[in-house]
Amino acid sequence: MQEKGSISIHTENIFPIIKKFLYSDHEIFLRELVSNAVDATQKLQSLARQGEFKGELGELKVRVTVDKEARKITVSDHGLGMSAEEIKKYINQIAFSGATEFVEKYKETDAQAKDQIIGQFGLGFYSAFMVAKEVEIWSKSHQEGTPTAHWTCDGSTEFTLEETEGEHAKAERGTDVVLHVADDSDEFLEEARLKGILTKYCKFLPVEIEFEGEVINQTKPIWTKQPAELTDEDYVNFYQELYPFSEPPLFWIHLNVDYPFNLTGILYFPKVKDELQLQRNKIQLYSRQVFITDEVKDVVPEFLMLLHGVIDSPDIPLNVSRSFLQADGAVRKINQYITKKVADKLAELFRKDREGYEQKWSDIGLFVKYGMLSDEKFYEKAKDFVLVQNVAGKAFTLPEYQEFVQANQQDKSEQTVVLYTTDAEAQHSFVQAAQDRGYDVLDLSGPLDSHFIGQMEQKLEKTTFKRVDADTVGKLIEKDDAPESVLSDDDKTRLTDVFKQAISNEQMHVQVEALSPQDAPVVITLPEFMRRMKDMQRTGGGGGMQMFGSLPDSYTVSVNANHPITQRVLGAEGEEGGKLARQAFDLALLAQGMLKGEALTAFVKRSADLLAAG
């Protein structure tokens, strides 16, 4: 006997909402139907384990087939099956008082309510109408003696449901969902398109999925296994399966927790070197082995978005279309757990294999510094294993380095001064000058180091950082035994005037200083705060730092009062003193890589003339 009826009361607008409002990405219809088939299969397995189903399980594959000529896609399972009464209960009764209430539920800010809509109301099945003009269900229950149920709906709220025997009945238990593909959905009749969808969403489902005679999934991916069952080769092979063209990972973290939330997965540290390769969306989120999204910014801390791998959790709340995460307390706990696990893994590597950890530092340093800058709890752990390296390549922890330089690099106010370079080659003369004084120089040339320096100055007591070319070497670390000038005040004034006239540049501020005779005759520096602001602005400092990036450079020209050349400048007659001053100034420009164009040409010619004159 055939039954006709309406799917629910007051739902005349439900299908347009499903098609246009809920599911913006039509391809997920296949994910939903295959997931339902897998659920039906697993429920049967569960009943069998509990002794409630005593029949033969047989082959439990889910099969997806396409008939292009007939314009049909079929998803078949050999699972629990449904009787006509169960179809009426689970398919027809979408429990809404109306479409308006449904939309309001979806728009609520309460993540839990939104999370429950698909599972509670069975809307996953109705995603089929995004691509189908008619959907049929042929289902035979696992309960003996139950006839085949046949349900048909054309996308309106009207349906037909009948029990059938004989030639049209299913021979075995299970469900076939048949989609009669709409005229505007031809793409889903192409085998390659369907296989691509299945590979994307169903690659790791726990029941075999067969498409056109080929099983497309692994039912037991390695994140579902215990670490003790796995070898390093297993982890590396899985990584290469996820990212076929990537270098092998540095190391990995196997996540496995069942309280206070369920979470499994594997996070890999890729090789990124010193470049801030923001290749995000490399972590895949699954829910019970169904691929959901690679937009995991709420689940994974910002600084770990550079990691690769898989996270699987049924406890992550999803919105009604399962495509976007909803931030709530559970997500925050998962976020904190992942942060802790990463910090613990790095600390373990540092403790167990300091040498190996140092070798990996050029790759992992970016993660560590990013984490310290963005997460206070991570900072508290990472401050014990973050490394800094000097220009000679020797690595130190922060406490080690403070102890290393404290005796020699304390200024007269007992501040420890950490000298650093952002480009050891370009700033070589300044690095050399500092080393000649017995000072050590750190290499802080990484993309986040300008921000890292600022954080270290806030966190480390009585410690300041100065770029090695930010001032004359004597002023970088001011001591009580600073040299005195051999020049009188009148000589200083006259020398200042000669250099100002020779330089003739308002951005160059001349001052005569008492430096060591071994220091350069002229040193050009950009004040530390200006350099730092510009560095931070270039790497995304934002806010008030933008103004410093656009300000004209304002340099200090320090003339060494105690250098022999200054005596020659003062003793020269006529234009000769100006030529010598300009030559000394150009040498300082050359040391900073600032001598270019016409000025460089004039310097070369002047140098040749001075050499010819003996």
Can you give a write-up of this model?
It is a single chain. The chain is of the alpha+beta class and 614 residues long. The protein folds into 4 domains: 2-215, Histidine kinase-like ATPase, C-terminal domain (Heat Shock Protein 90); 222-352, Ribosomal Protein S5, domain 2; 387-476, Rossmann fold (3-Layer(aba) Sandwich); 489-527 and 551-612, Up-down Bundle (Four Helix Bundle (Hemerythrin (Met), subunit A)). The protein is built from 21 helices and 22 strands. The strands form 5 sheets. The protein has a 9-stranded mixed β-sheet with strand order 1-6-5-4-7-3-2-8-9, with helices on one face. A hairpin with a 2-residue loop joins β8 and β9 (214-215). The longest helix is centred in the middle third of the chain and has 24 residues, at 329-352.
